Amino acid sequence: MKRLISLLFLSLTLVTFSQDQKTKGVFYKLGLATTLMLNEDFELGNSDETLINPSAIFLNNAVGIQFDHKSSVEFNLEYNWHSRQGLNFLPIYFSYRYNVFEFEDNLFVRVGYGRLLDLGKAYEKGTFYKVGLGFQIFDKDYKNSFLFGLDFNRKRFGFVQSDKLSSVSIFFEYTIF
């Protein structure tokens, strides 16, 4: 009986500690994204101008929970600066990520919904929506990861949220477990 209990305890310990650390737990994510647009002043052969210019910069901080190897939920605080329109936004939102295909790395889709915080005259108040598609690449220890892809963002703001700003952005993020 003593042997059986010892063997059972050892087996349970091995199963518990041999699970992949990536499948569950709390993580922190830091991200940078930009919206690109064609430069109207670009002329072929003119070295002073570039063909593509960034029109918006997004900085993202998130804390999330990985439920299993397929899904996670995040709480995001983001700063958005749209240089061309001269607008500042501070979205605070929840997002859900689902891994569609899993190999050594993951292909995922994500959605988010939240509010645009009003922190004075410089920031617009309203509603925030996000839908994205991306790729997750793990480091050599399969602990932390890089994420990159495309996001579609929509912001509704202004008087009775009648103003809308939609954009497609390229994102690059780093996740720390």
Q: What's the pLDDT, averaged over the residues? A: 87
What's the overall geometry? Answer: globular
Using the CA coordinates, give the radius of gyration: 21 Å
Overall structural domain count: 1
Number of helical elements: 1
What is the name of the CATH topology? Answer: Porin
Largest sheet entry:
8 strands, antiparallel, barrel
The first-level CATH class name? Mainly Beta
N-to-C SSE string, H for helix and E for strand: HEEEEEEEEE
Poorly predicted spans: 14-19
Structural class: mainly beta
Alpha carbon gap, first and last residue: 40 Å
Share of helix among residues?
A: under 10%
Number of strands: 9
Q: Judging by the overall fold, what is the CATH architecture? A: Beta Barrel
Percent of sequence in beta strands: over 45%
Helix-strand layout with pairing:
Elements (H helix, E strand, L loop, with lengths): L1 H16 L7 E14 L13 E15 L4 E12 L4 E3 L1 E12 L3 E11 L9 E13 L6 E13 L5 E14 L1
Antiparallel strand pairs: 1-2, 1-9, 2-3, 3-4, 3-5, 5-6, 6-7, 7-8, 8-9
Describe the structure.
By secondary structure, the chain is mainly β. It has a single domain (23-176), classed as Porin, CATH 2.40.160.20. It has 1 helix and 9 strands; from the N terminus they run αβββββββββ. The chain has one helix spanning 2-17; strands spanning 25-38, 52-66, 71-82, 87-89, 91-102, 106-116, 126-138, 145-157, 163-176. It has an 8-stranded antiparallel β-barrel. A hairpin with a 4-residue loop joins strand 3 (71-82) and strand 4. The protein is globular, with a radius of gyration of 21 Å.
